[in-house]
Specification:
With 245 residues, this protein is an alpha/beta fold. It is 48% helix and 16% strand. It has a single domain, classed as Rossmann fold. The protein has helices at 15-26, 38-49, 65-79, 102-130, 142-145, 151-171, 189-192, 196-203, 214-225, and strands spanning 6-10, 30-35, 55-59, 84-87, 133-138, 176-183, 236-239.
Length: 245
Amino acid sequence: MLQNKVSVITGGARGIGREIALLFASNGSDIALLDVNAEALEITRKEIESLGRSCLVAVVDVTKGLEVDSFIQKILDKFKKIDILVNNAGITRDGLLVRMSEADWDAVLGVNLKGAFNCTRAVSKIMMKQRDGRIVNMASIIGIMGNAGQANYAASKGGLIAFTKTVAKELASRNVRANAIAPGFIQTDMTAKLTEVVKSEMLKHIPLGKLGLPADVANLALFLASDDSAYITGQVVQVDGGMVM
């Protein structure tokens, strides 16, 4: 589905980002990964190359525009084009609003929202010149419904949804599409730390009665990055087992 494409994936060393990277590579795409975990990046790079695709990796802080621009140029130098961007990098710093520090607010908004801005701005010029491109932003159902103890995370993901719609409108005339995915509760390292009591309570709110898998999100990302979704832009697609309807 992505034969001879070049995909850039932020936060691509672990979890959902890694799942997307491996699926894209198995569908014919060369991969460039940005992350802050050098060890995990190297492991994922080897996995991608074992699938027969080229992979360029770098430790990049997506909140730093100059670091992002520098790596995007290296990607362009190596692959000569960028077809797909997946803004997946994200963090949480949970806490009730009245106790939330300014530093925790800034950190989450910085990675989750400013990071997507930095990466999208860097690749959009390339995609506009190519008159082709696909941008997939990893939002969250929390950005739609809100959640106690996650004011910063909800604001960042809600902002990312609005950002996606604006990018879609600005770039559509150049055949560049932008869509967002809003996962619900997915089995990752983050949810693995939750107690069984908390998980049981979560499942009560999910009509399908189970947590999602990283593959569930990756499969949708593949569709949105492929030609199969050529007439879809500016949309937010939930992968949440029916939790938010």
